[in-house]
Amino acid sequence: MESAPPALCRLQLGTELRRLRMESGHKAGAVAKRLLWSPSKITRLEKGENAIVELTDVMALCEVYGADAETRSVLEGYAVVTKTRRDWWQSPKFRPVIRPSLRAFIGQEATAERLQTYQSEFVPGLLQSEPYVRALHQAAHIGLDEADVDLLVTMRMTRQEVLHRPDSPLKLTAVVNESVLRREVGGTAVARQQLGYMADLARLPNVRLQVVPFKVGVHPAMDGQFTILAFAKDAGLRPLIYMEKLADDWVVREDRVVTKYQEAFDELQAVASSPQDSLRMIDQAIKEL
Fold first, then answer.
1. Helices marked H in 38-129 — which ranges?
2. Residue spans of alpha helices (H) in the chain
């Protein structure tokens, strides 16, 4: 725990608090009422969305749930980590440009062992080049202060550090629609540089990139992009689905839904071009720009 990142501690703490509540037969609303809390506070704690978890809150919940001394000690230790160390995305400078739900996802992304994503329009975030990111934000946030655009770009590029973690780099499998290769974002020069950048990252041993050609026709992800996050077995965290739309984003944890998306992703990989053929498609798209 002494070396664990705060994000992982928050997620494990939330998972354990939910397990204790369920095993003790308590409803979230009843617990909130008993402790004079809002119901949303229980939800945030169980989802690991609070940047800092108060030790007194954990102690109160352990008392309600009848947790044993060993469990209490571990959970209180998690809370202490969130109070004494801070993840980079929790820095005050990023607060104005990162909505709470995205902060929660970044924490999950930073601690995941494996990430699988399908993108139909954009280059996957972890494979985006700096000029591409800047062009995206300038187009999507017209009128946004240039300093805030700089923060958004910095945030995106910093997130890519998970691909280069010294001991356990994130295993990324990305499937993209061929339209991603053909759409010029930021002009021809930026589009060409982005494709080259994506191809370089796709050659990392922990990255697998596949392209779904137009000729495939109907495929299992016609209704939009999604991301599957999976964690190390010893983390005690279940896989989850992250989906992002124009005005909102959300996380889904229900096993049946996760299974459905995992099956869809497996089918996507089956119909997509191989990694080698996908790289050839990228090279061809660069030549045709």
1. 39-47, 55-65, 69-84, 100-111
2. 6-23, 28-35, 39-47, 55-65, 69-84, 100-111, 130-140, 146-159, 178-182, 188-202, 255-271, 275-288
Q: According to the model, what pLDDT value does residue 2 have?
A: 58
> How far does Cα 76 stand from its chain's mean position?
26
Q: For the chain, list the domains and their CATH numbers.
A: 6-86 (1.10.260.40), 112-288 (3.30.870)
At residue 42, what is the residue type? Answer: I
Contact yes or no for 32/38 (Cβ under 8 A):
yes
pTM: 0.84
Helix (H, G, I), strand (E, B) or coil at 256: helix
At 156, which amino acid appears? R
The secondary element (H helix, E strand) that includes residue 117 is strand 114-119
Max CA distance (Å), the chain = 65
For 176, the 3-state DSSP assignment is: strand
- The closest of 103, 9, 25, 91 to 58, measured between CA atoms, is 9
Higher pLDDT: 223 or 72? It is 72
CA distance 237 to 87: 19
82 and 229 Cβ atoms separated by less than 8 Å: no
Question: Which sign does the torsion angle of CA 91, 94, 98, 102 carry?
Answer: negative
The neighbouring-strand residues paired with 175 are 118, 210
| Pairing mode, strands 171-177 and 207-212 | parallel
For the segment 18-46, what is each residue's pLDDT rounded down to a tens digit?
999 999 999 999 999 999 999 999 998 99
